[in-house]
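sry for the spam today, last one i promise. struct tokens for design, 209 residues
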């Protein structure tokens, strides 16, 4: 593609991430399961809050992968980031669909989440490929832990959300491993702690807004 074509494609990805309308290349997990059977109003609200947090995580993932891909030095790393980003777009679409099924909405702060994550991803990318990949690996590790906690917190009868979250978890593990295999550096512990603190702020806010 020409530079203009790539710019248009990346802008479309950003727009879909922020305002909705993401397209999934893979079928939504659990599509054969009942959407809200057995869930009361409180359980639907709780499930929606958790899935909104997951959707925000995928908005951030799109921003991170887009920004890091733009400044990656190695074409193979660019391709790896692009592949992972496409699978994250599936996650984005799945979470958006599930929120609609639960009668809820995506976060009203998505533009803020996207802009902040894009800036962080750009900074990580400019630090060099090994640090950029290390950032990806640590991010995916934290997301994996976060998704595992959601599998414990989701209502037991919400099998549809559980199927989505479990497939996301599997994909995130693979993305993190791919980043490590490509030469990702181990991030210093203070950086990991900062990332965890920022994630806590995001998840707490996105659950409600």
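last one done:
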């Amino acid at each position: 593609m020409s530079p203009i074509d790539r710019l248009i494609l990346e802008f479309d990805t950003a727009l879909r991430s922020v305002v909705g309308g993401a397209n999934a290349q893979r079928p939504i997990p659990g599509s054969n399961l009942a959407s809200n059977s057995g869930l009361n109003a409180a359980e639907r609200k709780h499930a929606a809050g958790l899935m909104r947090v997951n959707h925000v995580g995928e908005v951030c993932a799109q921003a991170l992968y887009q920004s890091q891909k733009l400044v990656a030095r190695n074409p193979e790393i660019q391709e790896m980031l692009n592949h992972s980003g496409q699978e994250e777009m599936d996650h984005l679409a799945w979470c958006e669909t599930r929120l609609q099924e639960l009668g809820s909405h995506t976060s009203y702060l998505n533009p803020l989440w996207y802009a902040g994550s894009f800036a962080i991803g750009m900074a990580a990318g400019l630090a060099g490929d090994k640090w950029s990949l290390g950032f990806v690996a640590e991010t995916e590790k934290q997301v994996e832990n976060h998704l595992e906690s959601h599998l414990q917190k989701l209502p037991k009868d919400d099998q549809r959300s559980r199927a989505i979250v479990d497939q996301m978890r599997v994909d995130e593990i693979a993305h993190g491993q791919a980043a490590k295999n490509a030469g990702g550096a181990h991030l210093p512990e203070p950086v990991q702690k900062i990332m965890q603190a920022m994630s806590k702020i995001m998840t707490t806010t996105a659950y409600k807004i």
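Residues 41-71 form the longest helix (31 residues). ok im logging off now
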